[in-house]
Structures are given as structure tokens and as C-alpha cells.
Amino acid sequence: MRFSIKQTGCGGERIGYLTGFIRSPGAEIETPTAALFTQGGSVVNLTAEVLSKVFSNTKLLWLPLSNSINLETGVKAQNDGVAKFAGLQGHVTCATLHSLSEDTPSGHFELDRAPLWTKNGKRMVSADRYMDVMEIFKPDIILAIADGRTSLNEGSKRISKAVCRSNSMLKTCVNRYMSSKELQKSSLIGVVVGAGNPKKCDESLRNILTHVDNLTGISLQGILDGPEESRDIDSETLKKLFEKVGEALPKDFVYILEGNWNPSIILTAVEHGWDLFDGSYPLKLTNTGVAMKLNFDVTKENDTLYLLDMVDERYKADLKPILEGCECLACKKHTRAYIRHLLNTREMLASVLLSIHNLHHFDQMFYHARQHIASNTFAVFKQHITKQCEMVKDFPPNRYKGSNGTNIPTENQAPNIKRRNL
Ligand SMILES: [Zn+2]
């Protein structure tokens, strides 16, 4: 895989292209962009056929091993890689150990093995075993196995071990990569860890630099130990971290940010040169019955919330689409009232329709971001989106889970989101 930068903006933001995929010749992904999150090899809530109607172009599929390791026997028997096995050939795959948006028990690491939390329990995975699975899954992009689930407030002893272990596992991944023709058809991504301790983070960055010839990019971990924490991190802390990592590593690397970050944080990362995101954010919204409706028109002031709580009573007889003017399949055919009904009666179609809209809309956010980078107006766009995010103070959407709170925000009202079950 090649990454070429087409244009840079006034800040660190840039438009790039991922091309030259050995297993998907002709595929081209324009960045910045988000992947589509998969489970069991498929895009969550969408069949391959529906996916082809939602997106006509090649997409990047995010493939956590934690929810796909059970495919191993079948993928090995077919011997054509996980994308073909799941009927998604033509799309590009990026495999990783687990998703930072999953809640998992902390710790359980051993000297040279990491825990893989699957629905059937814990499996301990060494770097060699991880690369064995990569040889079978044949993803286009491989994130190296790492101990990246430490928060910014983590104790220095834990961070120290995480960095040491990740450095050692990266060495094994690189050695395996260099000695396997099959693995060399993929691109290897190094994982930066230990963000909570500047000295240890520097050590992680220096280690990445020793493998620079075999890496195509980096992913930044070591910020979160689970999805709940992302709402507590302020953007200034993240900005400094994005700058530090960007200054230490080659500019022509692909920069990947994992985690369930809101649009404001995502665009802050884009502003600092980040290129790829894992796509867990729209999935999180869908899972909590929430639809996204950002206003992308920077010439229009926006005084409504960008999140719609679709199970709310107020949409019972609302015959408008989720978002007027939206070109997605859900908005073209279905009303808010119907989607609310499906959600309240626990129909599977509710998640399908919400996914179609949220994935389309999230993709549109990146489309507009690229347009503004090309026009050197990205700062205006970022400020416009950030203002909308600031209207929802109590975020991310996992706040929606919990008790049956009644004070759910309206479209036109400042939010006071309470927890509730969906
Ligand atoms: Zn829509």
C-alpha cells in the first residue's frame, strides 16, 4: 500500500490517497476518512448487498480480531482472506487486536502475550500467534499487536510495562513481516502507546523509528482504557499529544486514531494531520438509538442539536425523514415516526435503517472536511462543527445508556442528557 499526500491545508490537515493495495489492485481510498466497523467480518447491521447500495466506492473495513477470530477455521479452509470469506472482496481491510470502543477487563497481560477478549471469553495471544492469524486473514493493513489499553491517568509502572511489552511485540511482528511473502502483501502499522507518561511515550516513539523502513504508518493508543473515558479528556490535552506524535514521526506515515471520539475531537485530529479513524462512533450512536444530523453548511448558523434521540415520544407522529435533504436510503424512504416505532418494538430493521443513515452522514462529514481542506477553509468548517458539538456537553452517547431518564434533549433545546436503557 502506498500513501501519498495530495494537498495540505493551512494547518497540519491534509488530503491523501491510499493506493497500491496488492490484494485489492485499483482500490483507492481518499483521506481523511473513517473505516466501517465490522463484526464477524461483516459491516455491523448491513449485508454486503445493502452495503453496496449505501456506498458505491471502495471502503476501508475495520476488523477487530476480538469479534472475528472465530472465522479463522473457515477463512483458512477457503485460503482467500477474510474479506472474500465475508463476501466483501473489493473493499480494503484493516485488522487490529481489539477495538478501543469495547469494554474489556483491564490488565491480564503477560510478559509476551496480550489478552484477546472474545464473546467466548479470554484468549491469550502472542505476537507470533497474532501474525499467524494475519497470514490466514490476509488483511490489507495490519496494526501490530500492542498493549495499548492504558489511560492518560495510568500509573507509571503499568505504562512502563505496556511500553516495554509493546516494543518487544512490535519487534516480533516486524521480524515475522520481513520473513513472510504473504505478510508483505499487507502494510504493517506500528502502535504508539504510553501516552500517559511523556518519557515512556518518547520511548515508544523512538522504538517505532527503529522499524521505520517496515512500517507504513502508526496508530495512537495509550489514551483510553475503554470507551467510557473518552468524554473526560479535554481537547487541549489531545492537541498536545497529536502534535508530539506528529513531530516525532515521518510526515509521510498514515496516522490512525482509534476510539469512539466525537466529531469535534476527530476534526481536531484531522487538523493535526491524522488520516484514518476506526468508524466506531456512528456504530455507538446506532446502538443507542441516536441519529446524527450535523449541519455542514458553514454559512448557516445552527441552533439545533446534531443528535436525535429516535426513541423519543416527540417523533411518534413526525413524518419527516431523519434529516431533510439527506440522500441516504433510510431518509429517502422512511419517516422518523416509522424508525421510532421500529426502535420501540425492538425490530432489527431499526438498527439497519439507523446504520444506513449514520454511516452515510458520518461519511459526508469527511467528504465536507476534504472539500474544506482543498479550499483552505478547514478551520472554518472545524469551528462550525465544534460549535454544534459544544451544544451537547454531556457526551459521548454511551451516556444515553443506564436508567430511564426522561430529560432527553429536544432538537431545539440545550441538552441535559440522562442515562437510560434502550
Ligand atoms: Zn439519511
TrEMBL record:
<feature type="binding site">
    <location>
        <position position="331"/>
    </location>
    <ligand>
        <name>Zn(2+)</name>
    </ligand>
</feature>
<dbReference type="InterPro" id="IPR028592">
    <property type="entry name" value="QTRTD1"/>
</dbReference>
<feature type="binding site">
    <location>
        <position position="357"/>
    </location>
    <ligand>
        <name>Zn(2+)</name>
    </ligand>
</feature>
<dbReference type="InterPro" id="IPR036511">
    <property type="entry name" value="TGT-like_sf"/>
</dbReference>
<dbReference type="Pfam" id="PF01702">
    <property type="entry name" value="TGT"/>
</dbReference>
<feature type="compositionally biased region" description="Polar residues">
    <location>
        <begin position="401"/>
        <end position="415"/>
    </location>
</feature>
<comment type="similarity">
    <text>Belongs to the queuine tRNA-ribosyltransferase family. QTRT2 subfamily.</text>
</comment>
<dbReference type="GO" id="GO:0046872">
    <property type="term" value="F:metal ion binding"/>
</dbReference>
<keyword id="KW-0479">Metal-binding</keyword>
<keyword id="KW-0819">tRNA processing</keyword>
<feature type="binding site">
    <location>
        <position position="326"/>
    </location>
    <ligand>
        <name>Zn(2+)</name>
    </ligand>
</feature>
<feature type="binding site">
    <location>
        <position position="328"/>
    </location>
    <ligand>
        <name>Zn(2+)</name>
    </ligand>
</feature>
<dbReference type="InterPro" id="IPR002616">
    <property type="entry name" value="tRNA_ribo_trans-like"/>
</dbReference>
<keyword id="KW-0862">Zinc</keyword>
<dbReference type="InterPro" id="IPR050852">
    <property type="entry name" value="Queuine_tRNA-ribosyltrfase"/>
</dbReference>
<dbReference type="GO" id="GO:0006400">
    <property type="term" value="P:tRNA modification"/>
</dbReference>
<feature type="region of interest" description="Disordered">
    <location>
        <begin position="398"/>
        <end position="422"/>
    </location>
</feature>
<comment type="subunit">
    <text>Heterodimer of a catalytic subunit and an accessory subunit.</text>
</comment>
<dbReference type="GO" id="GO:0008479">
    <property type="term" value="F:tRNA-guanosine(34) queuine transglycosylase activity"/>
</dbReference>
<protein>
    <recommendedName>
        <fullName>Queuine tRNA-ribosyltransferase accessory subunit 2</fullName>
    </recommendedName>
</protein>
<feature type="domain" description="tRNA-guanine(15) transglycosylase-like">
    <location>
        <begin position="14"/>
        <end position="388"/>
    </location>
</feature>
<keyword id="KW-0963">Cytoplasm</keyword>
<comment type="function">
    <text>Non-catalytic subunit of the queuine tRNA-ribosyltransferase (TGT) that catalyzes the base-exchange of a guanine (G) residue with queuine (Q) at position 34 (anticodon wobble position) in tRNAs with GU(N) anticodons (tRNA-Asp, -Asn, -His and -Tyr), resulting in the hypermodified nucleoside queuosine (7-(((4,5-cis-dihydroxy-2-cyclopenten-1-yl)amino)methyl)-7-deazaguanosine).</text>
</comment>
<dbReference type="GO" id="GO:0005737">
    <property type="term" value="C:cytoplasm"/>
</dbReference>
